[in-house]
Design a protein that fits this description.
This is Tetratricopeptide repeat protein. InterPro entries: TPR-like_helical_dom_sf, TPR_rpt, Ycf3/AcsC/BcsC/TPR_MFPF. The protein is of the alpha+beta class. The chain has helices at 2-8, 38-51, 70-74, 76-87, 113-131, 152-164, 176-188, 192-205, 210-222, 226-239, 244-256, 260-273, 278-290, 294-307, 313-324, 328-341, 346-358, 363-376, 381-408; strands spanning 57-64, 93-99, 102-107, 135-142, 171-173. The protein has a domain at 29-174: Reverse transcriptase/Diguanylate cyclase domain (Alpha-Beta Plaits), CATH 3.30.70. Strands 2-3-1-4-5 form a five-stranded mixed sheet, sandwiched between helices. Helix 17 (346-358) packs antiparallel against helix 18. It starts with a helix and ends with a helix.
Length: 409
């Protein structure tokens, strides 16, 4: 039940590319690894055949600024071809267009890594000058750790996705963060096993990277492997005991395991480090409400609303808190906000119906909300009981009114 709740609002914290100064790309080229285009299939075969016997080579994925003019994009293929042959030749490299403004190159026959980087810089300069447009580039030089030749094209695409977070004019060399971003993309697509593989590859490159350790913990947590999740969160905490996302996630594991005292201790520590994280404030408010610590819960729920006013969950929990305090008008006001923000939240609908019924107000609306909550979750016994209670209240009021009418007649 808790895992279902996590997926909606109270969830594991992750640090990916959505920092205020970074923007995720509109297109992830690493998606071509799971849904390869004809062009990528052709290039993958060519690189496998051509580079299998090479000791060193560089693979680079190049994208023109997506905001470039249509005229610039129209001549991109011609420019890629001309610049490739002005810097290299058919004996020193291969290339393929992936779409109208993106290409992937491989080149070799350089003696040192520095010479390879100079060739890469020259290729960048030639193409950007010819097109009068900035480029986004992701590159990887072989050999790289124990990665095989056939993974080089995919790694270049992952580095391109990584570079795209920084925008035009940036080049990124493939690293552990590239794999974290790739894993996050797979996680976003609900391919948890593949995401775990990416994070593990990333840790083979950067074994003490907190983001990768935390990401792996999150993936195992969502996959309900809680012991494994805790193992990686603890490793991350040992590296940096003040990392708020890791502390929150440890607290969340304790909450899932119903160790509320431990969960509250970790969440309070996370709050002390950063009081402006929605998930921390929401979970703290929720847990304190469950512990009947209403006065302590309220400031955290109010903070969650301030941090994410478009979320109905904090309003709904406040409604439940007011119900527990027998402040039915206050509860109705909070549930009203929750239902406005999420008309299909069965808990908010049922709570709102109950708050109205306890005030003996708007019973027809209360009855319809109670019915809708049950329709959304037909197996919920509490919603069914709530519907029956409201129906009984309405029936009793009708009977009383009928008796009064008879007496007055």
């Amino acid at each position: 039940m808790m895992l279902k709740f996590i997926a909606k609002e109270i969830r594991f914290l992750k640090k990916n590319g959505d920092a205020p100064d970074l923007r995720p790309p509109d297109v992830y080229y690493s998606d071509l690894l799971t849904q390869p285009s004809k062009e990528f299939k052709i290039f993958s075969r060519r690189i496998a055949d051509t580079c299998a016997s090479l000791q060193t080579f560089t693979t680079v994925a190049i994208q023109i600024d997506p905001a470039a003019s249509e005229e610039t994009i129209d001549k991109a293929n011609e420019i890629f071809h001309a610049c490739f042959h002005s810097v290299l030749d058919d004996d020193k490299g291969i290339w393929e267009c992936l779409d109208p403004f993106t290409a992937i190159f491989v080149f070799w026959n350089y003696k040192t890594a520095d010479q390879g980087k100079k060739l890469l810089g020259l290729l960048n300069d030639k193409i950007s000058q010819a097109l009068n447009a900035e480029l986004i580039m992701g590159a990887i030089a072989f050999p790289f750790h124990n990665f095989p030749v056939e993974e080089m094209a995919g790694c270049a695409l992952k580095a391109l996705d990584h570079a795209a977070f920084f925008g035009p004019g940036h080049t990124v060399e493939f690293d552990g963060l590239s794999l974290n971003i790739s894993g996050d993309r797979l996680f976003q697509l609900n391919n948890i096993d593949a995401a775990i593989t990416e994070y593990e590859k990333g840790l083979s490159i950067a074994p003490v990277d907190i983001n990768l350790l935390n990401s792996l913990g999150v993936a195992f947590g969502v996959d309900a492997c809680l012991d494994k999740a805790m193992e990686f969160f603890e490793k991350a905490r040992n590296i940096n005991p003040e990392e708020v996302m890791v502390i929150h996630n440890i607290g969340l594991i304790h909450r899932i395991n119903e160790r509320n005292d431990s969960a509250l201790a970790y969440l309070r520590k996370a709050h002390a480090i950063n009081p402006d994280v929605f998930e921390i404030e929401l979970l703290l408010g929720h847990l304190l409400f469950k512990e009947n610590e209403f006065d302590l819960a309220m400031p955290h729920l109010d903070a969650a609303i301030r941090l994410k006013p478009e979320s109905g969950t904090a309003f709904r929990i406040k409604g439940q808190l007011f119900l527990a305090r027998e402040d039915y008008a206050g509860a109705a006001a909070q549930f009203n906000q929750a239902v406005k923000l999420n008309p299909n939240d069965p808990k908010a609908l049922s709570g709102y119906a109950r708050a109205m019924a306890l005030q003996k107000k708007n019973l027809s609306i209360a009855l319809s909300f109670a019915q809708k909550s049950l329709d959304l979750d037909p197996e919920n016994k509490q919603y069914k009981q709530n519907l029956e209670k409201i129906q009984n209240i309405q029936d009793r009021i009708k009977e009383t009114n009928q008796d009064l009418s008879i007496k007055s007649a």
